[in-house]
Amino acid sequence: MDVLLNDVEARVFGALIEKSVTSSEYYPLTLNALVAACNQKNNRNPVMSLDEKAVVRALDAMRDRHLAWQVSAAGSRVFKYKHNLEGLFAWTEEQRAIMCELILRGPQTAGELRTHCERLCVLPDVSQVEVLLHGLTEYKDGALVKELPKEAGCREHRYAHLLCGDVSVPIQDILPQPEPATLAVRAENERLAALENEVAVIRKDLGELQALVTEFRKQFE
């Protein structure tokens, strides 16, 4: 897959895709509207606080790779911006919704995606979402989505997009965490081992001291 975005570019790309569907009457977006879309607190994970310069730099880089366009509407005094999704990917409406949500919200389960995608398109059930995700993991031009290992305490796999490169899960998030009782026993064992080491050192020092006392006494015998 040739497309590789940084975090800011991904947020700009996702915001443009989202607003082209949910706010089509105001799309393409002005720079001010795009900055606001990138920084909004709902439907975003993580929440960002980007300034205009950061968004402009991202747009410039995206335009160089034909990911976004700057357009000038008749009668408008400002430039507006739009994505070039159709020129890059032959995504269906459902695939577009899933990718948009993964870009804007980060890794999610199939059930979470079905709920979050409702504002972009209708996905009847979780099984259809899983079919769509499977198709995106085997996309013809290279995988766009990756199934992540199950995290500790989770019943379902989460999925992540790959437009920013490969995704890994920290090993501590995969392995089950020890129970409180196990942690308490480990702490007690560590304290006991430390005490035993201290006792061994004291015994060694006492032995050396006794040897010195014995040698000292011999001088007066």
Please, could you describe this protein's structure?
- 53% of the residues lie in helices and 7% in strands.
- It has nine helices and five strands; from the N terminus they run αβααββααααββαα.
- It has helices at residues 7-22, 31-39, 52-64, 85-88, 93-105, 110-116, 126-137, 171-174, 180-218; strands at 29-30, 68-71, 80-83, 145-147, 159-161.
Just name the CATH architecture of the largest domain: Orthogonal Bundle
CATH fold naming of the largest domain: Arc Repressor Mutant, subunit A
Query: What's the end-to-end separation, in Å?
Result: 91 Å
Uncertain regions: pLDDT < 50 for 5+ in a row?
Answer: 171-175
Radius of gyration: 30 Å
Q: Average the pLDDT over all residues and give the rounded result.
A: 87
- Count of helical stretches: 9
Give the percentage of residues in beta strands. Answer: 5-15%
What's the main sheet like? Answer: 3 strands, antiparallel
Instruction: Output the helix-strand order.
Output: HEHHEEHHHHEEHH
Shape from CA axes?
elongated
**Helix-and-strand structural type:** mainly alpha
What topology does this entry show?
Blueprint: H1 7-22, E1 29-30, H2 31-39, H3 52-64, E2 68-71, E3 80-83, H4 85-88, H5 93-105, H6 110-116, H7 126-137, E4 145-147, E5 159-161, H8 171-174, H9 180-218
Antiparallel strand pairs: 1-3, 2-3, 4-5
Helix pairs in contact: 1-2, 1-3, 1-5, 6-7
